[in-house]
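User: Sequence for DUF402 domain-containing protein below. Tokens please.
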Amino acid sequence: MDRRRRPLTSPNTCPSRWSPGDHVVYRQLWSGGVWAAIPATIVEDSSDLVSLYIAPGTKFSGPICTREEHLHVAASGAWKLKLYEWAGQHHLWATVPGEACSIWTIWSAPDWTHLGWKVNPETPLKRTPLGFDTTDHVLDAVIDANLSSWQLKDEDELAVAIELGLLTVSQGERINREARRVAGECVSSRRRQLQAWAAWRPPASWKLPVLQPDWEAA
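Assistant: Structure tokens for DUF402 domain-containing protein:
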């Protein structure tokens, strides 16, 4: 089914805050269409931080394409989605409201071996009746688990996104600067915060979230 061409609706109002343990839908958009819809559990939702837990085994909706094809498919403006299973890793995604990036803490599953962090440039989170919307900005900065170093990732894909018109040259330059700035802070002034995230674990009582039937609603 072509999700890009299906109009989004607004059946409900947005909650001012979610509570820890609430289930939400985190949606990634391109050109106003839903590119992926991922069920997540709220860890924190405050004026200082929004953090979400993505659990292995979670069923989520994503585009039918290969990694090599995905930017060309996004630029086409039309794509089909299907259900996938989130496998192999635990993720904790943390974002300061209003900032144009999130920091992902990543562990292997099922043993919770800490693999490091990822700075993920994106549009600031938009609160919806279902959870949060954003648009991923392709480039990443990967931070070692010991906080000793970081490196940019997918610079080639950022160049392709600019070539295809998904992003402008000026946007690409800003995204690159933001990724570098945040990664630099992570290995210097924010080390304690990142170490606290790496020590986090979900309560044993938390259940696996499921994709809500109205996940396409705005």
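The longest strand covers residues 33-45.
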